[in-house]
């Protein structure tokens, strides 16, 4: 049983009583209403939403707030954005996962409008450390939901998101070089995947302030820093061949206030786990 149910004072519902399906459905629906408004850049009042939902569910404010953070944790695992300010809290009752799944199925069009929207990038691109290894295992019921709503496939299909991330990194590279007094190099930064196509195995040619060339591969998601991503066989081979100058740039939480990027240098296997996901299929001879 989650912490909120053990310690929160409920108004009308005993704090020890597990959440019923209808309560979870009500809260999940309201959460996605806020998420849709946030995605559209429209204002909303969290306190007002709490009061409205609380009148129906009759749980304490603390219980409602913590359960919203549980919903954020499920969406984080799905590689989806979550409502800013509701930091994911992973200790949740198992029934929450089916509640989110029910909403995803019933409101597929509305959910697609949320997750397929490419918001305007936040101007400031913070550079952060590589995320720490995950300490806790993902519950089996959540693993099954992730398989149904694969974040890797979703980000791969969203070419607009990928291009927006590359454009953001190009701007960052040029601004960094200009700040270092290297306007000449800033003018030479190239969007290589646009100029030469995807066959190069990287997206951007840039430079260090001392003039050393860099090949940058950009992977972008609206999800969290730990959202997995695809690399092609060619991209992996290029990373191995250009170890000294190649960098993988992972942009995450794209368009959100916590938007950031971490950078990996080869060997990528020091920080990443590679698992085969597709097969080249031909006819037997």
In short:
With 285 residues, this protein is an alpha/beta fold. It is built from twelve helices and five strands. Helix 2 packs antiparallel against helix 3 and helix 2 packs across helix 5 (96-106).
Estimate the mean pLDDT confidence.
Answer: 89
Taking the sheet with the most strands, its summary is: 5 strands, mixed
The radius of gyration computed from the alpha-carbon positions, rounded to a whole number of angstroms, is 22 Å
The global form is: globular
Pfam families: NOV_C
InterPro entries: NOV_C (IPR024975)
Protein name: Protein NO VEIN C-terminal domain-containing protein
Organism: Deinococcus arcticus
Topology of this protein?
Elements: H1 3-7, H2 21-39, H3 46-57, H4 61-77, H5 96-106, H6 108-115, E1 126-127, H7 140-148, H8 151-157, H9 159-179, H10 183-186, H11 192-195, E2 204-207, E3 213-220, H12 233-241, E4 246-252, E5 260-264
Parallel strand pairs: 1-5, 3-4
Antiparallel strand pairs: 2-3, 4-5
Helix pairs in contact: 2-3, 2-5, 2-6
């Amino acid at each position: 049983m989650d912490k909120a149910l053990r310690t929160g004072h409920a108004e009308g519902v005993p704090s020890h009583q597990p959440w019923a399906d209808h309560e979870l459905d009500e809260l999940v629906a309201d959460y996605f209403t806020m998420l849709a408004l946030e995605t559209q850049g429209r204002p909303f009042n969290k306190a007002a939403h709490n009061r409205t939902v609380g009148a129906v569910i009759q749980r304490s404010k603390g219980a409602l707030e913590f359960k919203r953070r549980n919903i954020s944790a499920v969406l984080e695992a799905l590689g989806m954005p979550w409502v800013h300010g509701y930091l994911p809290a992973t200790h949740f009752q198992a029934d929450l996962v089916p509640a989110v799944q029910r909403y995803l199925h019933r409101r597929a069009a509305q959910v697609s409008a949320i997750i397929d929207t490419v918001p305007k990038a936040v101007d400031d691109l913070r550079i952060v450390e590589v995320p720490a290894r995950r300490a806790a295992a993902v519950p089996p019921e959540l693993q099954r939901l992730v398989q149904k709503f694969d974040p890797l496939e979703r980000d791969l299909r969203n070419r607009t998101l990928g291009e927006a991330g590359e454009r953001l990194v190009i701007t960052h590279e040029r601004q960094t070089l200009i700040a270092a007094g290297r306007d000449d190099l800033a003018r030479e930064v190239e969007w290589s995947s646009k100029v030469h196509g995807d066959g190069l195995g990287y997206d951007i040619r840039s430079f260090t302030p001392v003039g050393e060339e860099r090949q940058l591969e950009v992977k972008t998601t609206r999800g969290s820093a730990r959202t997995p991503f695809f690399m092609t066989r060619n991209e992996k081979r290029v990373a191995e061949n250009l170890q000294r100058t190649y960098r993988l740039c992972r942009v995450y939480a794209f368009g959100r206030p916590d938007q950031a990027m971490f950078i990996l240098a080869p060997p990528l296997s020091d920080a990443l786990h590679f698992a085969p996901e597709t097969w080249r299929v031909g006819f037997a001879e």
